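Let's sit down with a protein and look at its sequence and fold side by side. Which protein we use is up to you, so please pick one and set it down. Label the sequence line and the structure token line clearly, so we can match residues to local backbone shapes. Go ahead whenever you are ready, and we will take it from there:

***
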Amino acid sequence: MKKKLIDFESVTAIILSFIGGLLDVYCLFNFDIYGMLQTGNLIKLVMNLIDGNITMFLATLSIILSFTIGIFFAILYDQKRKNKSVKGLLIITMVLLLFTIMVPNNSEPRTLSYVKFIATLLFGLEGAFIFHSFARFGDYAFSSTMMTANIKRFVSNIYERVVNKDKTKGYGIFTYFFIILFFLLGVAAGYCYMKFMPRFTEGFMGLYEYNLILFVPLLLLFITMILTIKIDAKYHINEKQ
């Protein structure tokens, strides 16, 4: 059977890739810590330890542990739901993101206060749920913020299509290309907002101006949840058949 050029699963993965890029650059710019890119956090963990920056060492360790705990509970959720749906994970992520939006940014970018530290822990959980949800969509093994893996798979699909003349790999080339592209667009959107938006120094906007960009991933997560309804409906029909 000929595969569609695009499907709900691939669209969902592409949206989550954009979200991953935006949230990672937001966390890096604001906290000097990644939200989902734990390889980067492990590098920063060692660097902070060697530099004697105990505050950032503990903060980085905390978000790694928060991400780890989030993955554990995401897997536990999967087992309880028997891998049937990720809507619950997306709903939990949206609720956590709403709480994150309400945490004020009461210190300069790339610095952490005790209040902002709460946000990093929430981002660790959110990142885990998004990361775990991401790999559940499509016929290919996606990896949200691990673009090294996605680039490798992108090139592998090109090789199979060009060298081995495997026409079925055209879909993988198309999908991986857009996953990488939208991750870059997410990074660009988040960085441009954080870098070029006019700065406020006091009042409500002084505390929450950075957080306004987080309404974008919140909206996209809601759209993703709607798409999962379509995905679940398709699989439910297939199971009956």
